[in-house]
Amino acid sequence: MKDKKKTNRLWSGEFKLKVVLDIIENELSYSQAASKYDMYLSSGSLNDTLPAR
To answer: Which SUPFAM superfamilies does this UniProt record tie to the protein (predicted)?
Structure first.
């Protein structure tokens, strides 16, 4: 059997849930939530680790 590599998660499941609920409750866009929670990479690109609505 092949060994599976464990990937380090940047965001915890609890944090993702908090952000998604905030997006829904406050009708935020994905980019607004990314700015609010500082989810931009140092390169300026969006770290796309949250599920889409």
So the answer is: TrpR-like
- Judge whether 4 lies within some domain: no
Per the listing, tokens 């849930």 go with 17
- Let me know if residue 18 belongs to a domain: yes
Tokens at residue 5, please? 């590599």
Longest CA pairwise span in the chain (Å)? 46
Res. 50 pLDDT band, cuts 50 70 90: low
Parent domain of 33? 10-41
3-state secondary structure at position 40:
strand
Q: Which two tokens stand for residue 18?
A: 């908090």
